[in-house]
Automatic annotation (TrEMBL), chain A:
The gene is sucD_2. NCBIfam families: PRK05678.1, sucCoAalpha. Keywords: Ligase, Nucleotide-binding. This is Succinyl-CoA ligase [ADP-forming] subunit alpha. GO terms for cellular component: succinate-CoA ligase complex (ADP-forming). GO terms for molecular function: nucleotide binding; succinate-CoA ligase (ADP-forming) activity; succinate-CoA ligase (GDP-forming) activity.
From TrEMBL, chain B:
This is Succinate--CoA ligase [ADP-forming] subunit beta. It comes from Moorella mulderi DSM 14980. The keyword Magnesium applies. Keywords: ATP-binding, Ligase, Magnesium, Metal-binding, Nucleotide-binding, Tricarboxylic acid cycle. ATP binds at K45, G52, R53, G54, E91, L94, E99. Binds 1 Mg(2+) ion per subunit. Mg(2+) binds at N191, D205. One of its GO terms (biological process) is succinyl-CoA metabolic process.
Length: 292, 376
């Protein structure tokens, strides 16, 4: 249940033999992820935690019928790895890399749309369908933070996914799929696109949106709700009201210029579309209980 | 990374975008010599990274070499928009008939480069966009096709240009697009793009912002200390930390951009004031040491507030770094901490045992305690 990722989804880990790839492969396996194979050019024929390693994504697709990929490669090679996965026909790609050149992000997003695939990220913590599978860095084993349930969670920031999910669980509810869109200026997948998926998912009964200052994704999502694209109950928390204008607050996408992309603009747009606004992360649980 | 005007113009010149004849100087005497060499009336332009320097007195005209020296002496060393002026661009003064605006930036929603052009150049373009949006021509460029001449011509015609002017504009726009792509820019801007009395088109200004995340392959550009608001932000960036100096007295150390912003918001919510934004996400042991060092350098800091809810960053690794930093740097300010995420039990144990610190159970309790101690 949930969206995009289930325990059946057959996954490729690109960059599996690197430090991070190896470390997180063990945790993704423990979280139930169905990892079909790994890829590191030149390391084909080896194994990582029992997962067979290949030289190309194409080989994993041919031998195991892979459908999704999670990419652990550094910025200079990230676009190449993503295009390899897209060309091999994978329809879900989690691109974790922090520091992808913005013009590479333009190409990645454009190509993904052309072939009808979802690239989640870059600069994000990954995604998880709780109780089934996890792609990336999400600590689903922390039981006070992650419990299975029927709330969809969409965030720009990874650290806030943990914070907000812990309040959802504390309020006695659980999570269907949580998904990190990333903090870069050009995300591979937008808030609106994920809301459309949650709308179709019968299991998800409500959604929590964790936004932040900068860009226009939250405002665009509000427009999408107003035309009936998303009609389920929703709560939003938007970080960054104390961010000074024009300053980069950690995320390259979190810059506010001349009133556009401000927390106030996002909150009023979402509120006008019927979304309940939490002033603090700790209010999310109570607001959810009132409406779901 | 923002380039100075003279650096941007060097890129323009290399690719064939017409710019005024000019010389970059760092002293009043050299400004006089430059004016003599150019042999015309000149304009003396302070080289700073912020906009609005004209209104702030950073641009002066001079008819003689003596005037050029005087004007340069007046601007050099002055504070403009919180930057100290150390470089000047001395240029021939243009005979301006009209001013246009031309820029290429990124449309995050369409995921494409976006051309913005206007016949209302020389002004604050944000103001034009707000007051008379119909005066801005926008064209999205499909990223894989690139900018072709027909589309550049279309922009020229939509601006009302014709004949030689339309051709000159088309040529400049095609070249500007190559600058944008080749140098991994997030913004290239010519404001104003001048039409001179004798019908030529010249880039009178140049703004080129290179995307920081692409500097690893733009090896001709090094983001040195002069391009940061202060020396501490520069050092933070070298350590891989995101640091922004703020006005308050609560020193903040956090992991993750979103959580850090939220902690600042909560401090304000409870009536306190943060001294800084500091994110040591993806933290290693050393990162937390440098982070503590940076926060302690700020004399305004009365309380230190640490918050982590690590993903990639393991809480126990962060705690080891913090404990080490506390032992060596011996902060006199009280420390409030909330440490969660992978390895949180070990992390709390480390802080208790090594430095006698009792972590708080959640972020809001920690923030309230810090605000109280800071006198908020």
């Amino acid at each position: 249940m949930g969206i995009l990722l289930s325990k059946e989804t057959r996954v490729v880990v690109q960059g599996i033999t690197g430090n991070e790839g190896t470390f997180w492969t063990e945790r993704m396996l423990a979280a139930g992820t169905n990892i079909a194979g790994g890829v590191t050019p030149g390391k084909g024929g080896t194994q990582v935690h029992g997962v067979p390693v290949y030289n190309t994504v194409q080989e994993v697709v041919e031998k195991h019928g892979a459908e999704a990929s999670v990419i652990f490669v550094p910025p200079p090679f990230a676009k190449d790895a993503t295009f390899e996965a897209l060309e091999a026909g994978l329809k879900l790609i989690v691109l974790l890399v922090d520091g992808l050149p913005v013009q590479d992000a333009l190409e990645v997003r454009t190509y993904a749309r052309e072939v009808g695939a979802y690239v989640i990220g870059p600069n994000n913590p990954g995604m998880a369908t709780i109780g089934e599978a996890m792609l990336g860095f999400i600590p689903v084993w922390l039981s006070y933070v992650y419990q299975p349930g029927n709330i969809g969670v969409i965030a720009r920031s990874g650290s806030l996914i943990n914070e907000v999910c812990s309040h959802i669980v504390a309020a006695g509810m659980g999570i269907s799929t949580c998904i990190g869109l990333g903090g870069d200026p050009v995300p591979g997948t937008t808030l609106t696109e994920v809301l459309a998926l949650f709308q179709q998912d019968e299991h998800t009964q409500g959604v929590v949106i964790i936004g932040e200052v900068g860009g226009s994704m939250e405002e665009d999502a509000a427009d999408f709700m107003k035309v009936g694209g998303f009609t389920k109950p929703a709560v939003a928390f938007i970080a960054g009201r104390s961010a000074p204008p024009g300053k980069k607050m950690g995320h390259a996408g979190a810059i506010m210029t001349l009133g556009r992309g401000s927390v106030q603009s996002k909150e009023s747009a979402l509120s006008a579309a019927g979304v309940k606004i939490a002033q603090r992360p700790s209010e999310v649980g109570r607001l959810l209980k009132d409406i779901v | 990374m923002k380039l100075y005007e003279y650096e941007g113009k060097e890129l323009f010149k290399k690719i064939g975008i017409p710019v005024p004849r000019g010389i970059m100087v760092t002293s009043a005497a050299a400004a006089g010599e430059a004016a003599a060499q150019l042999g015309t009336e000149v304009v003396i332009k302070s080289q700073i990274l912020q906009g609005g320097r004209g209104k702030a007195g950073g641009i002066k005209f001079a008819a003689t070499t003596g005037e050029a020296r005087e004007a340069a002496a007046a601007i050099l060393g002055s504070q403009l928009k919180a930057e100290t002026v150390s470089k000047l661009l001395v240029e021939e003064k243009l005979a301006i008939a009209r001013e246009l605006y031309l820029a290429i930036t990124i449309d995050a929603v369409k995921a494409s480069p976006l051309i913005m052009a206007s016949a209302a150049g020389g002004m604050d373009i944000e103001e034009v966009a707000r007051e008379t949006p119909e005066r801005i021509v926008r064209e999205a460029v499909p990223i894989f096709r690139g900018l072709l001449p027909f589309q550049a011509r279309r922009v020229a015609y939509r601006l009302g240009l014709a004949g030689k002017e339309a051709s000159a504009f088309t040529d400049i726009l095609l070249k500007l697009y190559r600058v944008f792509r080749f140098y991994d820019a997030e913004l290239v801007e010519i404001n104003p793009l001048v039409v001179t009395d004798d019908g030529k088109m010249v880039a009178a200004d140049a703004k080129v912002n290179i995307y920081d995340g692409a500097l690893f392959r733009q090896i001709d550009f090094v983001k040195g200390p002069e391009r940061y608001d202060n020396e501490r932000e520069y050092r933070a960036a070298r350590y891989g930390l995101g640091y922004v100096k703020l006005e308050g007295n609560i020193g903040v150390l956090c992991t993750g951009a979103g959580l850090t912003m939220t902690v600042l918001d909560l401090i304000n919510y409870y009536g306190g004031k943060p001294a800084n934004f500091l994110e040591f996400g993806g933290a290693t042991y050393k990162n937390s040491y440098y982070a503590m060092q940076l926060v302690l350098e700020d004399p305004d800091v009365k309380v230190i507030l640490i918050n982590t809810f690590g993903l990639v960053a393991r809480a126990d690794v962060i705690s080891q770094g913090l404990a080490q930093a506390i032992k060596e740097l011996k902060p006199t300010q009280p420390i409030i901490a909330s440490i969660r995420g992978t390895g949180e039990e070990e992390a709390r144990e480390i802080l208790r045992k090594e430095v006698g610190l009792e972590p708080y159970a959640n972020v809001e309790e920690a923030v309230r305690a810090a605000v109280k101690l800071a006198g908020g």
